[in-house]
Amino acid sequence: MSFALNNLFVHRLRPGRLLFFFLFLWLFSGLFLFFHLQFLKSQIQNQEMQRLQVGLDNYLKRSGVTSGENFILESEPPQEVDFIRLVRGRDQFLLTGNTTMNFTGLVDLDPFAHGIWIDLMQPGDSGTWLLVSRKLTGGLVQAGKDDSSAGIAMYQRAVRVSFWSFCLAALPSLVLSFFLMYLIQQPLRQLHDDMARALAKRSLLLPKHRGHYDELAPLYQQLEQLFQQNRQLIQEMQSSLDNVAHDLRTPMSRLRVVAEYALQSERNEPELYRNALSDCLEESERVMSMLKVMMSVAEAEAGTMRLELEELDLMKTLEDVISLYQYVAEEEQIAVSCAGEKGVFVHADKTRISQVWANLLDNGIKYGHESGTVRITVATKDNFAVVSFCDDGMGISEAEISRIWDRLYRGDRSRSHQGLGLGLNYVKAVVEAHGGQVLVKSKIREGSCFEVRLPLLRK
To answer: What is the C-alpha separation between 121 and 129, in angstroms, rounded?
Structure first.
């Protein structure tokens, strides 16, 4: 199998990963050669030992040893044996056809010595000799053969071949490493190309591949969802930034106009400058309030919101917020009522919870219709305090009701009202930080009902 490696592919290769594949494949080939060599060694040794045993057995059989009688040794040992040694008591008899060998040391050799490729004089060490012993009637027979020119020579040739094979295996291992890296990165390269084309065409869909890339189908689906979420988030952020810019432009413009008017005035009237400074302070407070809300939402989403918990009477906190919005409600001709159980206490941050009530009440007034109502009720259920804000305003569609908690999201019917789209997101974050939850039920043109559940104070 052939394949092409372009410069871009080589450039993208990670040297560490390529080295890992190369060493793995090369060492694997080395282990394969090592175990093959051990198997070959065992086969050669067994074969040579079997030849020696067969040669000795045939020699003893021809000499009549198996009959148990006195036997006459042949003049020469068989070709498979270098020497035959008979031991009876203190008597020893040595028969050999190897004229170049010094056999004086065999006198002290243990007649029971038996082994493969051992040292003849020191059978415990490695060497070139094969030894085999047989117990006879009234004595022992021992045979030996020098295997240096037969089995050992064959094994040494195999060792040299294996060594050079291991060295030469480095090249195919490197080539195979490149090939494996190419195969592993092929789906990722295809994904990279598909994403590049999708981004260039501003498409939210990726092409579906059949066959070899079916395993990437779940990843493609997740990327498409991510594309859609990012595109939607960008659109919402652009819309929300427009709202933020609009909401900040008004107080900043008023602040600038008041300051310029005071600076350009030539009248020596302290009251004029005092009023100008008061207006500037009011507008700066409005800007700071907007920024503070945005920072509070960021803290809530990051899970770093700090709560100053204390014992609170829910009805008292609700009455305080209602009194603040009474004038706004009267301007919008909205009737606000509060009823339910009294003496319901929770362990909460007073400022944060008051902001929750203020957001929900402000929404009820802002999106209610003329001469409408906002009903606030307090109850207890299953160790939770339940506070409900119900209005009879425009309501929320089913398509939007699951997204009203998202940061910076504003529904279509709320575009005409000022706001940053942070209120309900902030409400949800604060309530959940207190270990509670907030739910909503709504129908178009029938109104909405927001329900906040907080753990009751345990006394």
So the answer is: 10
